[in-house]
Amino acid sequence: MLTFRVCSIAAGAALWKKPHEAWFHFVSTVVLPPPPADVEYCVVARGNDSLGRRHRWQIFAVLACVSLGLAVAFAAAGAWPVLPYSVLELGVLACAFVWCERHAGDWERLSVAGDRVVVECCVGGKRERREFNRHWLRVEVEREGFGRSPKVFLRGSGASWEFGHALPESERLEVVRELRKLTGIR
After folding, report:
1. Percent of the chain with pLDDT over 70
2. Are 96 and 146 in the same domain?
């Protein structure tokens, strides 16, 4: 039995449909490497990139035009010190948009295949992959403090991996339950 789920932050629920169906263009267009063969369970978590690259930068251009237009109008009226602050504001806004652009393609995938649990992630363009022995894996939930979401850690063979950054708390805990069933952890 194959269970494959794609989760999106905006939806907060599990989504899995064929690529040709209508909702597909709203989910991030990140291309994932193929999952391992003989997959029993797979969870892919990624943020919703509903704007897309082109629209994100169009919004930046509109904001830049409005900000610079107002700054030029104030400078023409004699309040010239507004202009450098407007340029500084646009620089900070551009840095924020670049950061969003860099992390728009972030994803995590957890796969259970045979006697392995494979965890992969791509954050800021950097890919990492770790394999754990399914029977020695410990799935731990750490609750940090009041009002903070619990963190899920996969531990085994001296290695530790945090999973589920892009998942809402309820989905994260559901993945923990499924993993504990599949790995035989009480």
Report:
1. 83
2. no
Q: Are residues 81 and 140 in the same domain?
A: no
> How many other C-beta atoms are found inside a 10 Å radius of the C-beta of residue 65?
10
| Statement to judge: residues 7 and 57 lie in one domain | no
Number of folded domains that form the chain: 2
Question: Does pTM surpass 0.85?
Answer: no
- Which CATH number fits the domain that encloses residue 126? 2.30.29
Residue 19 pLDDT greater than 70, yes or no: no
